Structure formats: structure tokens, C-alpha cells
Amino acid sequence: MDHIKLGLSALAIAAISAPAAFARDQIQTAGSSTVLPYATIVAEAFGENFKFPTPVVESGGSGAGRKKLCEGVGENTIDIANSSSRITQADIDTCKSNGVNEIMEVRFGYDGIVFASEIKGPEFAFTPADIYGALASNVAKDGKIVPNTAKTWKDVKAGFPTQNILMFIPGTKHGTREVFDTKVIEAGCKASGAYDLFKAASKGADDKAKEKDAVSACNDLRKDGASVEIDGDYTETLARIAANKDGIGVFGLSFYQNNTDKLRVATVNGITPSVETVAKGEYPVSRPLYFYVKKAHIGVVPGLQEYIDFFVSDDIAGPNGPLAQYGLVPDPELAKTQEMVKNDVAMGPLK
Amino acid sequence: MSIGILTLIVIALAAGGFLLGRQIAVGKVAGDIRKLHSLPGYYGQTVFLFTAVPALLLMLGWLLVQPLLIHERVGAMIAPEDIASGSSASLVMSDVRRIADGLALIEAQGAAIPADAGTVREALGRVGVALGTDVKPSVYAAAKAYGAMSATGGKAMSVAVLVLALAGFGFAIARIRPAFRARNVSETFVRALLIGASSVAILTTLGIVLSLVFETVHFFKVYPFADFFFSLTWNPKFGGGSDLGIWPLIWGTLYISLIALLVAVPVGIFSAIYLAEYASKKVRAVVKPLLEVLAGIPTIVYGLFALITVGPALRDWFAQPLGLGSSSSSVMTAGVVMGIMLIPFVSSLSDDIVNAVPQSLRDGSYGIGATQSETIRQVILPAALPGIVGAVLLAASRAIGETMIVVMGAGAAAKMSLNPFDAMTTVTVKIVSQLTGDTEFNSPETLVAFALGLTLFVFTLGLNILALFIVRKYREQYE
Amino acid sequence: MTAEATNIPAPKRRSLYQLDARTRRRNASETRFRAYGVAAIAFGMIALAVLLWSILGQGLSAFTQTRIAMDVTLDAAVLDKSGKRDPVELAKATTLAYGKILDQALVKQATDKGLMPEGLSAKDAAGILSKEAPAQLRRMVLDNPALIGTTVQIEALANGRIDGLLKGRVTMESAKLDSNVSPAQLVLAQNLKDAGLLAKSFNFDFITAPDASEVRPEAAGLGVAILGSLYMMMIVLVLALPIGVAASIYLEEFAAKNWFTDLIEVNIANLAAVPSIVYGILGLAVFINFAGMPQSSPLVGGLVLTLMTLPTIIIATRASLKAVPPSIKDAALGIGASKTQTVFHHVLPLAMPGIMTGTIIGMAHALGETAPLLLIGMVAFVRDYPAAPPEGFLDPAAALPVQVYNFTRRADPAFLERASGAIIVLLVFLALMNVAAILLRRKFERRW
């Protein structure tokens, strides 16, 4: 098989009559579009200050990035996968079966997720229960599960303005959606008491099955147009808010920080999102960001070790580095990560 | 000798052979070319083909085989213990190639090649070839051997290719006689080439099917077949428990494409007719390329146009007054905007086809007193119909495959509804979003993209077979 | 019989100049028909005008950029601690060190000339400089180490928000809410502008420079993307046009009507409807995973786009071959030309305008396509220029539509203008291709 591949590559070269070999000089990374801005900032600074070429940073989603990482060892596979969620056992197994035995897991910071609306609109102070009450298809009312009929925010909770409920939430392909589901919708579901009612109503065999049913009932969002899924990027959400002044969008913290003149951010549980409040753990909606390094490529792809050292160094990922300025929440345990990266410690089994 | 130069030499030789062959043929009949079987140029052509084609084929074959042989030999030189754990022989080989390239570069600059493996990294660093680690002796030896073998192989190839080219040259020249059927030989060759070109389409289809089938099978192992084809809900979720029914997506695709064609086909055909039949030459020269620009504007621009301008306008002026909902992203928005994008697909091609209808048909029609529009409706359009159907099919194909406009104009909600002011989505959009998302790759939520792709492929295949049938049935040839 | 005949009223005698009802109806329908044509074209033109207007309105400003003129003293003690001007030693001074030098120079200049507004800290004042400026200065010094120790006059890029002030995107009101710029910084910029030290000038870098990261919208350019697109178009043109035309000729003129021909025909029609991302899947599976070609390379991109464009070219070419009247062929065959001669000498030249149209539409489609590139690693951040062809076909590169797509996804609003600017460049490419096609078409077009 290898031979056919090699031959075909040669054919490709011959087709354009180039006497070149395939030795790759630059680092290649791929993955999450949430990590992409940070990775490009680091790649740019790396290319400027080191003699190595600037790494190529692809987007395409965390899942696709990890898939590419696990495709095998060799030059036409990537070196680093950026991921906005933790690698799963299934991915590790794929990696193993393709000969990628050792992966380094590097957590370099956190991403805050915020709710924001048109700058001229009213202010909102949400709790997860409010958002659940606005978006879920079934809500708890007087100890009973009833279909959600709220039309305006005022119907959800007295004190909110009479503004139509219209939320732009990430589509199911986004990692952000997973965080939104677990940290907002499920939390709100539990806080509003709906979870217990769902669980009681479930016909599951044992407690576990009942819990599963309840969680899936919690995540059932209404489909009458109150919540609009966005498959594009935050820029699309922003454009939709510009076209629908009633809309409230879900954004990444760094995106909001670059558009504070257009968006009004909502507090969650009374906490205003910022790099500091997320770092302290006060603001509830956040998630860790990772990149995964193929250990077999360290020492083979020029500059790879230098790049990952550079990425997690205090100058870059620290609280005063360019990443934090852009909106990354620095990892309080960065020193530990630096130590790990320096020694090229591969990740153990998932806990 | 580099491959480029070698190719040039072979081609130059072949070109020379063309001239020579021609001359010899003319010479053999003492300038009276009536005595030749074919025109003199064809004799030249046979020489050209016999010189260039076998030699270039040999070169391709050589380039295919040589790396295999070298790889085999050099690979054996690397000590197994030098392959780090977790690494692979192919990775080490890439290092070998990198070092060999660097050494060639050093040599080209006239510097001395480092004697032992220890100093290689530094020496290569000076010429701009970065290595990841220090070089192990066995790897360095392998790299030097690799370089030497490539060089020898290259020389041998040059010689072999040139010899073959000359042999072909001589053979073809020797064959030239007045009775030699040179035209038939070269035409057979051309025909083979044409067949080869058209089979690219089959290879592409094969490639697509193969690259989709594997993962689709994978998908149906983790997700029931019946649910995919017969469920009417599309609702993927993180962590399993998704409903992945295809029908809402197919419905959205057909609905949006239909609206797009309702916009593009009349506008496109009327533009084409006006340009071909009424417009002055000057107007035509300006308007036609301008319309074609519409096809070249990146779809993301149309997407933003749909999102910011058309969507809210349709909502405020039509949907809300008519009580059909208050969504700014709708099938209508995406369809109308996509229709605008498709205008040139219909107009430009139809224009060329209408233009190609013989003038005699028009003259005949005018002669019996028909007005211009009657001529167009009753004579020209029927004559141009097969071509126009082709153009419309092309537009329809583009409509089905479009992503960006749908994402921004029609939203991402999979729904089945008759209301054109509802948000819906298409198969293509979901292929892109499921494939590039953050979900785990081996989950049904991602693999469904392949199943969607294959289904769409089969679906459009069916439509196309139908279209072929219809076109063939109604095709008429006028003259 | 005669009685009936006499029942037919004699035709009215009337002047030819007086139209009867039927003629009037026919003429009205003629006018209507014509009006439909005009309306259709007007619709297309209006749509085009609106689209172009919005692109130009947003994108033209990308071609100018704000720069700050300043004198910078390159302190040898900071930049070259060894004092030997050894390139290896010099490279150890990172952009951080250069950044500090620039910041000091700016603050000094502003204070000396009395341009610093009240209450603006030195750190914030330096914030009006682009983060790209230190990198530019460093490159300048590394290229010419003799500059160390001297004072040089440079034109440093201003921050994207300051640039926005001069382009009307940023105002005092928006700055109050903006976390990335303060009104005091805008006042400083205004002062510098009034003193003639800060000005907008034409931005060649937008066309030649590589992409920049999200924190430097002011430095982002299209150089790598233009090269990448150019390389891919070269491959597409060289492969798709000959293969497409050859396949069409075979199918239209030579192929016997049998199952094999039908198979090819249905295949081609179907391939035109395959969503473009599926070609990306194909490219990933065949060219990268199987054939082992490098990721993110224009070669793979060009091959994928070739496969994608082929059906379009084939369908268009066949339509125009079909449109050549049989009389032409019959005439050629009649005077003894062979089938091949007829096709290549007579039919093909006459079908050329249609082939050109098809190729242009196909290439335009290929030039603007993003989705298939997503899977073969070309939707990427690439800062190093690919080498000259043919080696450059294997180097990583971006592409113009990819750059547009990337720019529109970025958080900083300054990238919106860049995205529109990139579209303008894309349209210019398209216009050039169209002009070429028009010239060719004019040469070949005829009517029978």
C-alpha cells in the first residue's frame, strides 16, 4: 500500500514535472474554530521570532481536527489538533488503531460564553432558569409539566421587559452548544424544578435510565421560532441581531470583547462576564480549550517542540500575554502545563 | 537533468520530427502531394506521436517505479533501533529525504558536505533546511545513499528516455511511404485520447462513490437504516439520542431549488432572448459579460445580501402583512437570492444557443409575416430547447449544491412546511455543518454527512436519468 | 353554394395604414414580449448594481491604510547586547524588545510636540500603534544591521481602531463603549493627524502581504491567497479545458449511441449536481490519504477544482457543439474531409464562443469556491508565500475565497472591510477573465 501511495505521489510530481521531494518544513495544525484565533496569534508571533516557518493553522471543527490527528503518523498528517472539547475515548481508540499511540494533551486556557443583545436594547440579568423558561418546549408550572407558551420575556419572569423571545443559539454542530446545553439549559432545568418532574414522569427502568430521560427532556427546545439555531459563526449571529433588534445571541467572550460597542452583555447569576470573573470561576458558563500534539512528530517536524513551548509560555498564554488581551481566560495551572509540555508527557487514559 | 528540461528536449525532438517527417513525405513523391495517401502534415504527426508519447510514458513509469526501489533499498539501511518508539519508518524516511535534499543544496552552493552525522544539522541549518533532531549515523548514511541513488536513477532515466524517443523517431521516419495511411494512424490515436478524457467523469464518480460508501456503511452500523430514510425529524444532539431523518432536508432542498429556478429561469431566458434577438451589438457586448459577473460573485456575498437586505425586507413587506410568520430567514429569501445568482447560468448559455439557431429559420418565419416575438416563440425556442434544457439543468444542479446562501438566507432549522416564509435548510448545508462541527468524528452525528452525500448523489442520479430520457425524447434537429 | 358565398361579407376596404384589431393585438404582444426581455435584463442589472455597490462601499477603504510617521532611535544596548552585529545574536531580540522601542519613540514624539491629551497613560498612548509595527521594524533591522545605533524615520502602521477613526468606522461615541480603544486615544490620533504625522495612504500591503492574525486586522493582506488562487487556476485551466473539450467532442461527435455513452452522459450531468463539498471528501480520500500529496497545497486544490469544474465545461461545450448546424458538417464531409478533420477544422472553431462562456462560468465558479477546500486543508491561516511553480504547487497556500470566508468569521469589525476588499480583488480577477473571453468570443462569434 505504501508503495502505491509513494508511486502515485511521484506521478503527481511528474504530472507537473517538478523534481521535488515531499519534505514538509512547517508545522500543520487543524481543528476547532474557537481555538483558531488564539492559534493564529501564536503562529504569527512564532513565525516572527523564530527561524522556523510560520505554522499553518486550519479550521474545520474540533471533531475533524482530531480525526485528522488520528489518521496516522507521517508527513501528510497534521501535528497538532486544536479542540474546544476534551478528546473522547473513541478518538483515542481510532488513534491507536492508526499507530498514533502517544498524544500530549495541552490545556492552555478557558473560553467564556456570554449572552448579548443589541446595544440600544434593555439590559438583562439572567439566571439559567430564565433561559430554560424561555426556550424549553415544556416547563414546570405549579408543580406540573406544561407546554411553554411564553411569548415575551415578561411572560418568563416578572421584571423582564416585554420584548419578544428570540434567541440565537449555536447549531448542534458547535461545541459551544454542548456547553450551552449542559451549563445553561440543564442547570436551568434543575433549578426550575422541571428536572425532578421529568424524572418522576419517566418510565425508565432504574434511576439511571430515568435521569437520562430527564436530561433529554430538559434539552428539548421549542421549535416555534423562539430559538434560532445558527450554523455559521458569531459574525452571523451579530448580523442577525442587527437585523432583528429583539434578538439575544450566544457569543464567545473574546468575540464580545471585540464588539463591545455593538453588543450589550447580560449577566448570569448576577455576574458580568469578563476574563477575571471566568478565571475566578464566578461566571458559570465556560469551557476549557485544548490542543493535542502527536508525540511521534516531535523531533521530526522542525520547530514543533519550540512551538508548543512558546504557546504555553507566560509571554503568550499568561495573564498579560496577547491571548488574554484578546479574550482568552488564562489557565490558573499554567505552570503545571508548561512543565508537562517541556518534558513531553503523553496523556494517560481518560479519567 | 531535471524532468522539465528532459520533457522539453523530447518535445523539441518530436517537433523537429514533425517537420522532418512532413518534408520526407513530400520528398518521396517529389513534391506531387496528390500521390500521398494523406496530407503531408499527417506524416509529420505520426513522427511526432511516435517520438513523444512512448518516451513520455516511459518517463512517467520510471518516476513511478524509481522511488519505490530506492525506498526499499534505503529503508533497509536504517537501523531498527533508530526508529523512535511511537514513530514510524515512513517518518524517518521523510527525514532522510529532507537531509538528502539539503545535501544537494549544500553541494549546489559549492560548500563541503559534512563528514559525520553530528554536524549535519548545523550545516543544513545554514542553507535553510531545518531538522527536528540531531541526525543518527545510520540515517545520515541512508540519506547519502538516497541522494546518490536518486542521482544515478535520474541519469539512467534521462538516457533511457532519450534513447526511446530517438528510436520512436527513427521508426516513424522509416515507415514513411506514399502509401502509408498516416491520417488513419494519427486519427485513431486522437480518438483514443478523447475516450480517455471522457472516462475521467466515470473515474470521478467512482472515486466519489468509493469515498462515500465506506463511511456510509459505518454510519448504518451505528444508526438504523429505517430511521434515516423514513423518519420525518432531523434533530441531532450531542452525546447521542439524535433523530437523523433525511426527509426534512430533502424537502428543504427541493423547495428552495424550485423557488430559485422560478426566479432564474424566466429572467434568464428572457434576458437571453432579448440579448440574442433584439439588443444591438453594443448593448449585447456590455450586458452579457455584466450578467456573467453575477455568477462570479462569491456566494458569501449573496449570503450576506440575503441576511441583511432581502430577509428583513421580505419579512416586513410580505410575511408579516400576510400573516405567514415573522422569520427573517426563509425559504423565499434563500430562493430569491439564489435565483439571482443562477441568472447567468441560464442566460449566458441560452443566449449562445439561441444565437446559434440558423438565420434561415428566422428569415423563413419573417417571410410568411410572423412578428419577431412570434418567430421567437414558435420557431427559435423549439429549435433551441434541448440546449436550454441543458442550461436549466445546470442551474438546478448548482441550486442543489449551494450552501452559503442557504445557511445565511434560510437558516439551519430542518423543518417540513409548505409556508415559503418558514426557515428551512438543505442537505448540502447539513453535510457541511455535520462534517466540520465539533462533534466526535466516529459518532453518527458526523458520519451522517456521508450518508447524506451518498443519498443526494443517488437522488440526483435518478433525476438526471429522467432528464436524459426526456431530452432524448423531445430533441429535434433543425436545419 | 352560391347563396352561402354571397353571405360572406365583402372585405372592408381600408387603408393599409389603419391597423385592424388582430394586427394591433399582435403588435401589442410584440411590445409586451420585448418589455419582458428589457425587464429581465433590468432585474439582473439592478441586482448586480446593488451587490457591487454594497461591496465597493464597504471594501474600497481596505485599499488605504493609516500610518504614523515617527523617528525611532534603535538603541544598540537593547537590540544587540553582544555588540558584534552577529545575525544569530540579533535574532534573539524579539518583537517584544522592538515593541518597547517603538512605544517609547511614539510617546516621546507626542510629548515633545505637546500632542499628548490629558490623562492618557504612556501605555495607552502606545496602544494606537499596530502590533505588526514591531515585526516590521525587526525585519528592517535584521535585513540591515547597520541601522542599529542610528535614528531612522519610519511609517508605522496604526492600530485598526485608529484606522477606523479615519475611515469613519469608529467615532467618539462608539469608543466610549469599545473595550479596545478609549476616547483619549482617539484624541491623540486626531492631534497627530492635525500635526501631519498620521495619515492615510494607499495600501499596497493589502494586495501583497500575507494574512495576519485576529489582533492585527490592519496588517492583513491577500498576497498568499492571490498566489494560491493563481496557482490553482493555472492547474484548472491546463487540465479542465483540454479534458473537458476532448470529452465533449467525443460524446457529441464520435461516441456510438450505446450504454457506455449513456453511462458517461448521465455521470457528467450528475457530477454537476454533486455538492461541492463532496469533491472535498473525494480530494481528501484520493489525493491526500491515498496518493499522499501534501495538505493545503494548491496542487490538491487545483485537482479538486478541476474535477468540480469539468462537468460545467463539458455541459456548456456540448451545448455549443450541438448548436453548430449539421449543414456545416455535411458540407465538410461532402468535400471529402474525414470525421476528425470536420470536427477539428470546422465544428470546433464555430463552437468556440460557447466553449469560452462555459469555461469562464466554470472557472468563475472554481475561483469563488470555498467548501471543497475546507476538507483538504486550504481553509487555513498561511503566512509564508508558496515558492515559484512548479515546487510552489506543493507548498501550503490559501485561496482568495478562503480568505474572504476567514475574514468574515473574525471578531474584529475591521476585518469586514478587508473581506469586501478581498471580494473586490476577486471580482477584478473575474473581470480580467471575462475580458479575455470577450476578446476570444468576438473573434469567433458568428451567425448563420
UniProtKB/TrEMBL annotation, chain A:
Domain PBP: 18-315
Pfam hit, one: PBP_like_2
Protein's UniProt keywords contain Signal: yes
Signal peptide positions on this chain: 1-23
Keywords, sorted A to Z: Signal
Protein name: Phosphonate ABC transporter substrate-binding protein
Organism, scientific name: Paenirhodobacter enshiensis
Taxonomic lineage of the native organism: Bacteria, Pseudomonadati, Pseudomonadota, Alphaproteobacteria, Rhodobacterales
From TrEMBL, chain B:
Locations listed in the record: Cell inner membrane; Cell membrane
Record GO biological process: phosphate ion transport
GO cellular component: plasma membrane
GO molecular function: phosphate transmembrane transporter activity
Keyword Transcription regulation: no
SUPFAM superfamilies in the cross-refs: MetI-like (SSF161098)
Pfam families hit by this protein: BPD_transp_1 (PF00528), DUF3708 (PF12501)
Family annotation (Gene3D superfamilies): MetI-like
Superkingdom, taxonomy of origin: Bacteria
PROSITE patterns recorded: ABC_TM1
Membrane topology reported for the UniProt record: Multi-pass membrane protein
Annotated keywords: Cell inner membrane, Cell membrane, Membrane, Phosphate transport, Transmembrane, Transmembrane helix, Transport
Classification via InterPro entries: MetI-like, MetI-like_sf, Phosphate_PstC, PstC_N
Main location group: membrane
Annotated CDD domains: TM_PBP2 (cd06261)
Chain ranges passing through the membrane: 6-25, 46-65, 156-176, 188-214, 254-278, 290-310, 330-349, 379-400, 447-471
Function: Part of the binding-protein-dependent transport system for phosphate; probably responsible for the translocation of the substrate across the membrane.
Protein family according to the UniProt entry: Belongs to the binding-protein-dependent transport system permease family. CysTW subfamily.
Protein name: Phosphate transport system permease protein
Source organism per UniProt: Paenirhodobacter enshiensis
From TrEMBL, chain C:
Entry membrane topology: Multi-pass membrane protein
Main location: membrane
Any one Gene Ontology molecular-function term assigned to this protein's record: phosphate transmembrane transporter activity
Compartment annotation: Cell inner membrane; Cell membrane
Tagged with keyword Oxidoreductase: no
CDD domains in the record: TM_PBP2
Biological process, per Gene Ontology: phosphate ion transmembrane transport
Keyword terms of this UniProt record: Cell membrane, Membrane, Transmembrane, Transmembrane helix, Transport
Keyword Transit peptide among UniProt keywords: no
Listed InterPro entries: DUF3333, MetI-like, MetI-like_sf, Phosphate_PstA
Any single Gene Ontology cellular-component annotation: plasma membrane
Any Pfam family: DUF3333
Membrane-crossing segments per the record: 33-56, 230-251, 271-293, 299-321, 342-367, 419-440
Domain ABC transmembrane type-1: 226-436
Signal peptide annotation: none
Family statement: Belongs to the binding-protein-dependent transport system permease family. CysTW subfamily.
PANTHER family on file: PHOSPHATE TRANSPORT SYSTEM PERMEASE PROTEIN PSTA-RELATED
Protein name: Phosphate transport system permease protein PstA
UniProt source species: Paenirhodobacter enshiensis
